[in-house]
Specification:
This is Expansin-like EG45 domain-containing protein. With about 240 residues, the chain is of the alpha+beta class. The chain has three helices and nine strands, in the order αββββββαβαββ.
Length: about 240
């Protein structure tokens, strides 16, 4: 190779390497969806009809959100210190809510957060898509942040169902020193995320990663829940 051309080819190689690295970086960043999360207690009557096969680490997918119903699919979720919409056009301050943003939990989708298919227990504030949302199990929420916050920033990406539960990070014991400002853990109507019970129409078709013990089943019966932001108001009861 002529000596005069070597700098040109060296520069071209460096630019190619930078572009390749940038490409991989964007793919990695795009793996995550950013939104918020409420929490709930399962009673083995979720819309995906897993019944007593519901795992310890579970969540509900809004029926207004892309990918619905996603029954049986698994997602790695982690807390994000951020401020976000409260569903009514104001901002919820959650910039110091997370225990450890490097910690994550792998959950399985076993239920739905109803907006389109509404029932008495629906909550349009969280489920109707002013931003991306997941309704996660109480224990998952407890791994990521204190219950007092009721609603937290969340990010999630697809994951294998081979190993559900916590990954990485430190202990979930101990809450951040600050409390939700201005009682911002609660809604005016005292409800957080919400889901529906299963009906009698479901099959055993599972989800993306979920095997054959769950499938979408319709919306025949409402379920009772306890919701995350009740705790911010000190409402400790179960259900409605």
């Amino acid at each position: 190779m002529p000596t005069s051309l070597r700098p040109f080819y060296t520069l071209a190689a460096l630019l190619s390497a930078v572009l390749l690295f940038s490409s991989f970086s964007s793919i990695s960043a795009d793996d995550y969806t950013y939104g918020r999360a409420t929490f709930y207690d399962d009673n083995q009557q979720g819309s995906c009809k897993f019944y007593n096969n519901i795992p310890e680490w579970y969540g509900a997918w809004p029926d207004s959100q892309a990918g619905f119903p996603n029954c049986g699919s698994c997602w790695e979720v982690s807390c994000v210190d951020s401020d976000f919409s409260d569903g009514y056009g104001a901002t919820m301050q959650r910039s110091s809510a997370c225990y450890d943003t490097s910690k994550s939990v792998v959950i399985k989708i076993v239920d739905s957060c109803p907006c389109v298919h509404q029932n008495f227990y629906s909550n349009q504030r969280w489920c109707c898509g002013d931003m991306q949302h997941l309704d996660i199990g109480r224990r998952t929420f407890q791994e990521l942040a204190d219950e007092k916050w009721g609603v937290i920033g969340l990010r999630w990406k697809p994951a294998s169902c081979d190993q559900l539960g916590p990954r990485g990070g430190g202990s979930s014991q101990g809450a951040p020193a600050t409390a939700p400002p201005n009682n911002q853990g609660s809604s005016d109507n005292g409800s957080g995320g919400s889901s529906s019970d299963s009906g009698n129409n479901g099959g055993n078709n599972g989800g993306n990663n979920g095997g054959n013990n769950g499938g979408w089943s319709g919306w025949n019966k409402p379920r009772q829940r306890s919701f995350g932001d009740w705790f911010a108001r000190g409402w400790m009861g179960q259900g409605w």
